[in-house]
Amino acid sequence: DAGVTQSPTHLIKTRGQQVTLRCSPKSGHDTVSWYQQALGQGPQFIFQYYEEEERQRGNFPDRFSGHQFPNYSSELNVNALLLGDSALYLCASSLRTANQPQHFGDGTRLSIL
Amino acid sequence: QKEVEQDPGPLSVPEGAIVSLNCTYSNSAFQYFMWYRQYSRKGPELLMYTYSSGNKEDGRFTAQVDKSSKYISLFIRDSQPSDSATYLCATPHYNQGGKLIFGQGTELSVKP
Questions:
Q1: From B47's CA, which of A16, B55, B81, B111 has a CA 20 to 30 Å away?
Q2: Mean model confidence pLDDT for chain B
């Protein structure tokens, strides 16, 4: 039973560029959430998708956008990259039912030069 | 004030010791609590998921919730070097249930 998978594992970009990160949820899960984790900090919630729509959003600018596909996989897009966007980006999947535990992938480490 | 606070450590213990990891939270509306373990260069792995006050045990791990004090704990018995990781406490936001709020994480090192 495959868990949450994310690609790529590591990415290097320069300021001003755009990036797309990808996530496949755990089998049977229909909800995907994205988090940003800075070094030495806990993950910070970016947004959550189910039924192909953004349902909840954290305190992140509009440069951060996403998409969910009919097969429940998801993408995170970040435009106009800043040095401060360097972090580990984590995808978590769960069932839509309230307060279900979220299961995380191993993340994409994004480095901005 | 942060909604969930956790001492970042680092915490170093000898193999076989009992480890106590703790978090406090600010809002009594938070009802569910989780502990995640995160190894270096890996994503968080769900260890424990609790709702009510009291204890929940799973093997060498015990999660404890004290809602009157807004205090949650994770105890690890007979700690092993393989327990060396960062431990994160988390709770779903009370009116944004999909948003997990994490503590900073406590880095634990178990020495052989």
A1: B111
A2: 94
Please tell me the distance in Å from A49's CA to the nearest CA on chain B.
9
Question: Per-residue pLDDT averaged across B73-96, rounded?
Answer: 94
CA nearest B89: which of B45, B12, B36? B36
DSSP string, B48-105: EEE-SSEEEEETTEEEEEETTTTEEEEEESS--GGG-EEEEEEEE-SS-TT-EEE---
Q: A55 near B98, Cβ under 8 Å?
A: yes
CB-based contact, A60 to chain B, within 8 Å: no
Sign, CA torsion B13/A40/A104/B102: positive
Question: What pLDDT score does A99 carry?
Answer: 74
User: Which residue reads 């004030």 in tokens?
Assistant: B1
Residue numbers of chain A with a pLDDT score lower than 70: 1
